[in-house]
Design goal:
The structure holds two protein chains of two kinds. By secondary structure, chain A is an all-alpha fold. Chain A contains 26 helices and no strands. The chains are: A mainly alpha, B alpha/beta.
């Protein structure tokens, strides 16, 4: 019945409207930011310019993101390589453990580590290290590398056997194969996932503040949260965007015209290699190092803290805050997935400039620092709300429709996380190939029914995977929830932040652990699902 | 397919359900920058006593002020509750508060903790004190002579911290811009490390021997003393670190004190309830609860500080704490200048 209805829909008009609406919807609140950007600079901003503070901070930011990129790429990719090509004991458990840090918010990691430093003083070299920029590089790399790990692993699993075999036949030994074949061919995947690491790094201000490093994110925080100077905060965000674009552009230029396409051939299964003794030592020490620092120590510390503060648990209202977290994540994920499916379907049929425009606009939300995005959104929707109120007050509208409900928060999630669903589903879509879709149309389906009958079933796995990744990102997300929630609305992350901000990180351990447990369950599900 | 549609339906049903739950009725809506369990407990007491439900959103003060400004004629909140007088002054300056006429508040709260136009009332006090390594003698320590007494031995958190900004702002009021700049430069030159961590983290640095003196908020010291979690880095720190209220000498300017306070938002729907809540928080019981639960000094002179807070004063033989003689509204007036002085002196990057 529904399909029959969809068959009658004028797909072209529907798609054109939606293709304009979604990017427009994402872009609209940004107008608020654009307007602020051109407002005159405050005295604070001028002082920072006069002191060369901004210039230094730009350099610090670049240093930070370069270091975080290289270290997270190294850890993520090398461990993905090991897990893909070597026969490792307990590989299932190790695999999960390598992903779990994704469920630990970076600010929680930073706060927890000060406790760890206290009890294992020798680790304080991390905090004192100039190279690690007072520990910030360590925290971001250690807790964000799983983005690289996940992407690399799924890529290596699918695409490498032929290349490995070819290289071996030509006499390359494993190290040579790694550097000459695997690394270069995986470059787009590494860069793509490192970009996500960087967006997360630049969206965070708590770690740099806590460890005392003056990056641009820190100045956004200083300007806005400490001095109430929103205009300067917007200006700094634009600097960050500029740096990001510059980096991605440089990378694209250096890649040149090389294209790495993945012809849809049937890949041979990977034959895992038993590591030699020498290799074993290297492999296991790396794994122990990574898992120890990103898993065992912080989670161990949190468990101890949680046990020592069991008497505080009743104040937390764990059930209700967990329910709230789940509620907003589920609603947002469903809405995002629906719109991402529709928009990717549209994008698939687009070409050239229009395609680029739709894709870049749809992903911009993820790049804008959350603290700036949140206020821009609020300003925009409160104006909209007031207009609605003045128009509909007479017929019973007795409150702000968006800003006093969860609506504005869910819109915030939509704008922030749409990029994740969109980019991932788009790349999955490209793998299906347009031929199948055209075949379906030849058989009398329109583009919309094709989406339901062909694409969605084929994309099912990607949809689940993307939903899980979004879940992990959303349940950790703090700034947007904190600034856009309605009255009395507490979630796991807001409570973590409330206690951590009040210098009671040990009590924050409990909600933090729930976040980690929920994420771990989903990670296990994701990993077991992908094996089938 | 059907499953997906069902899920969509479910989502929208849920969504509308959520959108319809509303806060209208006998309520007071509070925008607060304070995030303490002790506040929540007091709000619960208020509800029990009056039947008025307290709805809360907490966020950073600038965010809340911008939100109230944007909400304009139809504000969503009735009460603005902030942990810093500077922000209260800013809220007044932005024109988002309304004057309160209340004999109860006039009786309970001394004039120096009120706004001159009664736009806001202070409810609790904290002092910006020195936490010192117990192996040294802090006698006679002042904000001014600390760099001479303990050169290169001072730790303090970053310039983004509002309490530091307000400390510098109070100096601008007392000494003027030039002298304050010299003082800040001197302090920065004597910092033992790049400012990082939180207030309690500064005390940990002293306990670890990284410095002799930390500048911190008095109420965090209370939290240190009462830390029972043995797995916490804060546990036992107060054994090695003491609290000292500076500038108590006859010719000294007095210790820097800041207040948490509240004001009623202009055009508030539930202004009467908001006033009832402020009055409730100013009475002796609530004031003593703030002191016992959150280590803050009461502003109501009939209320006693908790035994712990009193013991700190006794240890220093203080019968009446000498406070800076300034109108707290100036913390807002001088805030921008304070930030600029701290920025130009490289507060957050002292090695430069």
């Amino acid at each position: 019945m529904i399909l029959n209805f969809l068959r009658r829909v004028n797909v072209k008009i529907f798609f054109i409207m939606l293709g304009i609406f979604v990017p427009f919807f994402i872009l609209l609140p940004m107008t608020e930011l654009a307007v602020r950007f051109f407002e005159p600079a405050s005295i604070y901003y001028q002082t920072l310019i006069e002191n060369n503070a901004i210039w230094r901070s730009v350099l610090t930011t670049i240093e930070l993101i370069l270091k975080v990129s290289f270290i997270s790429a190294f850890i993520g990719f090398v461990s993905a390589y090991i897990m893909t090509f070597y026969d490792i004991k307990f590989s299932k458990v190790i695999n999960i453990l390598l992903i779990i840090p994704l469920g630990i918010p970076v600010y929680v990691a930073a706060y927890t580590y000060t406790n760890i430093f206290h009890f294992i003083p020798f680790l304080e070299i991390i905090l004192r290290s100039n190279f690690l920029m007072s520990g910030t590089v360590f925290i971001y790399s250690m807790f964000l590398y799983p983005y690289v790990y996940l992407a690399s692993k799924s890529y290596l699993n699918k695409n490498m056997t032929e290349f490995m075999n070819a290289s071996k036949t030509l006499g390359g030994h494993s190290l040579r194969t790694f550097f000459k074949v695997i690394l270069p061919i995986s470059r787009p995947v590494i860069i793509g996932s490192v970009a996500f690491v960087l967006f997360e790094t630049l969206s965070d201000f708590a770690v740099v503040e806590y460890y005392g490093v003056l990056t641009l994110s820190r100045y956004i925080n200083l300007a806005w949260f400490a001095n109430g100077d929103f205009v300067s905060a917007v200006k700094f965000s634009v600097y960050i965007l500029f740096i990001l674009f510059l980096l991605l552009f440089t990378e694209r230029m250096s890649r040149g015209r090389k294209r790495y396409s993945d012809a849809e051939v049937h890949h041979k299964p990977i034959i895992k290699k038993t590591p030699t003794l020498k290799e074993s030592i290297g492999i296991y020490s790396l794994l122990i190092f990574v898992i120890g620092l990103s898993n065992v120590l912080p989670i161990g510390q949190m468990i101890i803290s949680a046990f020592n503060n069991l008497d505080q648990v009743e104040n937390l209202g764990i059930l209700s805050i967990t329910f709230n977290s789940l509620k907003i994540t589920f609603i947002s994920i469903i809405i995002i997935v629906i719109f991402a499916l529709l928009l990717t379907t549209i994008t698939i049929y687009l070409k050239g400039f229009k395609k680029n425009l739709v894709s870049s606009v749809s992903t911009i939300g993820y790049m804008i620092p959350s603290m700036v995005l949140a206020l821009g959104l609020y300003m925009f929707y409160i104006r909209f709300d007031q207009w609605l109120y003045s128009v509909f007050h007479g017929i019973g509208l007795n409150r702000m429709l968006f800003t006093s409900t969860l609506a504005v928060l869910i819109i915030g999630f939509f704008i922030k996380f749409f990029a994740i669903a969109y980019t991932n589903l788009l790349s999955a879509y490209h793998k299906i190939g347009i031929n199948i879709l055209e075949a379906s149309e030849t058989l009398g389906e329109n583009k919309l029914t094709t989406m339901f009958r062909v694409s969605i079933p084929m994309l099912k796995k990607s949809i689940i995977a993307v939903s899980i990744i979004m879940f992990i990102d959303m349940i950790k997300e703090l700034t947007i929830v904190y600034s856009l929630r309605p009255f009395n609305f507490k979630t796991l992350s807001t409570e973590v932040y409330r206690y951590a901000g009040n210098e009671m990180i040990n009590i924050a351990a409990f909600p933090s652990l729930i976040i980690i447990v929920l994420c771990t369950i989903l990670i296990i599900y994701l990993e077991r699902g992908s094996k089938k | 397919m059907k499953k997906l549609l069902l899920m969509m339906l479910f989502a929208f049903g849920f969504f509308t359900m959520v959108a319809c739950n509303n806060n209208i009725g006998n309520v007071v809506n509070v925008y607060t920058t304070r995030h303490y369990d002790s506040d929540d407990a007091l709000f619960d007491d208020f509800t029990e006593e009056t039947g008025i439900t307290v709805n809360i959103v907490n966020d950073k003060a600038p965010v809340l002020i911008e939100k109230i400004k944007a909400e304009g004629e139809i504000p969503q909140a009735d009460l603005f509750f902030s942990a810093d007088a500077g922000y209260l002054a800013l809220a007044k300056e932005e024109g988002i508060l309304q004057a309160i006429t209340s004999t109860t508040l006039e009786e309970n709260i001394p004039a120096k903790y009120q706004d001159v136009d009664n736009m806001w009332f202070g409810l609790t006090k904290r002092a910006r004190v020195f936490l010192y390594d117990k192996s040294v003698d802090p006698s006679g320590l002042t904000y001014e002579n600390v760099t001479d007494m303990f050169p290169g031995e001072i730790v303090v958190r970053s310039s983004s911290n509002i309490y530091n900004q307000s400390l510098v702002a109070s100096f601008i009021e007392i000494k003027g811009v030039e002298e304050t700049t010299t003082w800040v430069n001197d302090l920065v030159a004597n910092m033992a490390r790049v400012p990082d961590g939180n207030d309690r983290g500064q005390a940990v640095a002293v306990a670890n021997g990284e410095a002799k003196i930390a500048i911190a908020n008095s109420y965090y010291y209370g939290k240190l003393v009462d830390e029972t979690d043995t797995s916490s880095q804060y546990y036992g720190v107060s054994e090695d670190v003491g609290i000292y209220f500076p500038n108590q000498g006859e010719s000294d300017s007095g210790v820097h004190v800041n207040v948490s306070g509240a004001g009623i938002i202009k055009n508030a729907t539930n202004a009467e309830n908001a006033q009832l809540l402020i009055e409730f928080l100013s009475d002796v019981d609530s004031q003593e609860a703030f002191s016992a639960g959150n280590y803050e000094f009461p502003v109501n002179e009939s209320a006693d500080p908790s035994p712990l807070l009193k013991s700190w004063l006794d240890d220093q033989n203080i019968t009446e704490l000498k406070e800076q003689n300034i109108n707290l509204s100036v913390l807002g007036t001088h805030n921008e200048q304070a930030v600029i002085i701290m920025t130009t002196s490289n507060w957050d990057d002292p090695e430069r």
